[in-house]
Amino acid sequence: MNAVRDTAHATGASGIHRLNPLTKLAFAVTVTVCAFAVVDYRWPLLLFGILLLPAAIGAGVLRRFLLMLTTFWVPVAVVLFVVQGFFLPGAHDVIAQLGPLKLKSEGVSFALLTALHILVLMSGFFLLLLTTHAGAFMSALSERKVSPSLIYIVSAALQIVPALSRRATRILHAQQARGQVIHGLRGRARALVPLMGPLILGAFTDVGERAAAMETRGFGATRHPTSLTAVPDSGVQRCLRAAMMLCAVAAVTVNVWGVVR
Amino acid sequence: MIEVKGFSFTYPTGSRPALSDVDFEVEPRELCAVVGGGGAGKSTLAGVVSGTVPHLTGGTAQGTVRVNGRDLDDTPLSGLVGEVGLVMQNPFNQISGARFSVREEIAFGLENLGVPRDEMAARVDLVLDDLGLTGVRDRSPYELSGGQQQLLAIGSVLVMRPTVMVLDEPTSQLDAAGNALVFEALGTLKEQGVTVLLIEHRMERLAHAADRVLVLDRGAIVAKGTPGEVLADERLEEWGVAPLRYTVAARRAAGRGLWPARKPLPVTLDAAAAGFGETVDHLDRGDWR
Amino acid sequence: MAGFNRSTPSWLNERWRIGWGTGVVLVTYAGLIAVRPTSEHGVGGPIALLALVGYTLGALLIVSGAVARLPPTTVALLPVAITVNIVMGKIVYFSGLPLQLDSIGTVLVGVVAGPAAGAATGALASVIVGMTITPGALPYAVTAAMIGFTAGMLARAGFFRRLSTAVLAGGLIGAVAGVVSAPITAFVFGNASGSVGQSALIATFQAFGNGMLKAATLQGLVADPLDKALTVVLAMAILKGLPPGFLHRFPFVRDRHILAPRADLVRVG
Amino acid sequence: MIVRIDSLTFRYPNGTTALDGVSFSVEAGERVAILGANGAGKSTLARHLVGIERPASGTIEIDGRRTDGLGIAELARTVGFVFQNPDDQLHAASVVKEVGFGPRNLRFPPARRTELVESALRRTGLTELRDTHPHHLSLGERKRVALASVLAMDTPVVVLDEPTTGQDHASVVLLGNLVDDLATDGRTVLAITHDMDFCAEHFDRVIVLENGGISWDGPVAHWLAQVADMAGQTLELPQMTRLGRRLGWAGPVSTVAGFLERLASEADPAPVPSTAP
Hints:
- The complex is a heterotetramer of chains A (about 260), B (about 290), C (about 270) and D (about 280).
- With about 260 residues, chain A is mainly α.
- Helices cover about 75% and strands about 5% of the residues of chain A.
- Chain A has 2 domains: about 1-130 and about 235-260, no CATH class; about 145-215, no CATH class.
- In chain B, the strands form 2 sheets. Chain B has a 6-stranded mixed beta sheet with strand order 6-7-8-3-9-10, with helices on both faces. In chain B, strands 2-1-4-5 form a 4-stranded antiparallel beta sheet, with helices on one face.
């Protein structure tokens, strides 16, 4: 649950931290679309090398950025090379042989391209998450008149997950203090109901009260709620966002045109 | 202003009424306390007056509940927002989770009503100050201690400046200092003309703060009156309510002739000290009996 | 993004947005089948982009339409359901079982609060997982939405009144999930997403000469129905354990005879 | 000596010191109240007794055994811990099954198990509710179920965390009697509490924690005698103590019985046997 803490408490003083979250979202989307739009493995590599990596360095989050890539991207890339390197349908240019398995060049180049696409997709979003406080993100969406229900659901889920995992620890201790042993497969299986029962049922039982509290605090009372915190924005960023979106739409259009044709 | 007349209510899954034939009124500038044992229907009553029961829970209701002159039967919950505030027993559920800092969480209700930003900020900061939460204003609501969460829950309702305030055991996790802050805030509310309905276990606080006390037992009101009348009633324990030690001591002392005969049994430290002081004086002068 | 609150023309109101979203998803899927990539170079880029953009757009439309129609109690239910998805998903993931079980909350909401709420739960759960655990979950938002939507529709049709039909419903939900997720697995992730077990299964199907999309679909049709049947059983167990009065707050399950009447809903003693 | 704690020090992961050189020991049959402001380290101390927290330095000995190598589930045979929130542990479909969970985990023989469960139900006044689903109980009743489920484990030490919070009058009375009975049976009770009247009426000894260290350890009456008007306003003195002070009495009274005895002695200089019930 470390990542949750990161997103909910991402604080920093860099210029990238201070950008409007929507600018960073637009950047993540655009860079992903652009990466997928061109069929050449050097292109996503270029995007990663000249945009994403320098941005991570500039924001001072390089260590965590690389750590997250190692955790999430490397396994996908490895599986990709194994599956497609050996089993890409229609590939026949064998470059190596391992027992009955044949490594094929088409498979390797396909795996390389796809892995780099995923690298850009993940990097764009990691950058957004590592430099953006979830609260600021939600405030920015709220200013763009996104439905309060949607903002509530996302915000509450982000905060309930850690609250619930703290509760899970308390429940675990309470049951262990009553002699519950949680060792081995059988112990674990037997512990499931005493541990998950209070956790999950408790969480659902709270829903009714929380809904009542929200309603008495006027949730949904007006279609035009205000926001306590102002999210910094600027004309430059607005132009930047428009340009990025235009770029993304163009890339999609060209590609759809190419596919349909 | 709260007016409840002949009100009975049964939950959809209940086999007996949670409230039966409840009848009472609370005027503006009045703090009415509700006491009773576990399962007596106190929280249900809080829900009824704040409009969440039966609107959200379902169930069958008879009789009328009027708040500020409006019949709750025909008033949707949204029609009461800002007018009636409800502080629930469990602060964890009162915290919306929609906001990431204490300051924003308090503002949540005002945001929902579309209050302009400047006014909102001023009102929020005032509440933070009143409840001693300024030091944790930027923390996540979920990182606070139980007591601080309780103060936050109260603050999130106070900030909306309701004219009727319903509080369900709002101080159970607070220490003496936190308690004092809350009762101070309630006193200020009363002066401002707010109607307060308070469910509370700590009798000593009530004896000072309440103008009137209702006792609920198995869904029915079995006693109502001033704290002095109700909390000194000898049936209090039968109704599942803890009597004050002052009252118990005076009652037993009276049995041995050690409590001034014309004085009512005390429910506050002051009254007990005055009464027993008189006893001691007389004993010293030797003119007792 | 999702959920515009400005005065919108009628063809963009909430109900229509769900319809448009579903339409976009179907057209995308049909498009992917129709222009089945022939050259191997077509696979990596444009097709993936088409799948990604079509599905994301569809998910956004469905979510914005569904969320706008939810009553407050359901809104309060969704974060909890999403949390249950995540917590159970994590437990199963770390237990090393060849299962996902990360849609228990989604199915539960579909049954309790209807198809729209179920769809919103699924899609938003993917967003939360994408924001907190791995961005790899984001492209699958549509699959998750379809799981909740299907659960709600089957609940409306009465599948959840008996355990046997509920298990059947789980199988059907799994089939839908398997088919809808295949293009993402195949084109965006090059058939390398998910667990090692899933990837091995896909590799096997590919080794037997199936195309990428076909291999991913077959994998989905083998693994998902089983997983979702178990998911449904667990969701029903949770429903059974919930206190009386809980279900009374949700008109969908209360008024439509979605579940069998519960004996414990009548208090004894 | 059933509990012996020697120079216990504990730091949170973030480095702040929660307990700093805490030492004390408790005899079998003693009733000890642990007092202190929020954040003084009361819960952290209690959590060490059941092995949830491990000391940075210092030792804990319970029933003659060092707890270092023992897991929470092993310590459960010696120390029963009643957590503040009963909803963190209730999972079974009936009260009797819930109460039987601990004894079953500790592998007591069936006959002994039944005996323990029945006795725990009786002592907590839950016999009639034995087949009820915990859903149908009020918070006070659920707290009693949690208490019963620990009593049924028949541990020589029982630790209670804020036992009176959220309890109605009947439950508090029951709880007080139970604490007295346990001590009579030779079992040791430690309780974290804010409720000073409860503490004055049912405990022999107080340990006051302040900033992670013990600032007072001794009999309740001695503490009440020396304590000024409650340092830091964090605790409210017992009602009878405050009344006694208002009357200008030297030396503290803390309970209604004690107060009446004192009053009677004022009435009649010759010592009168107390008839207070």
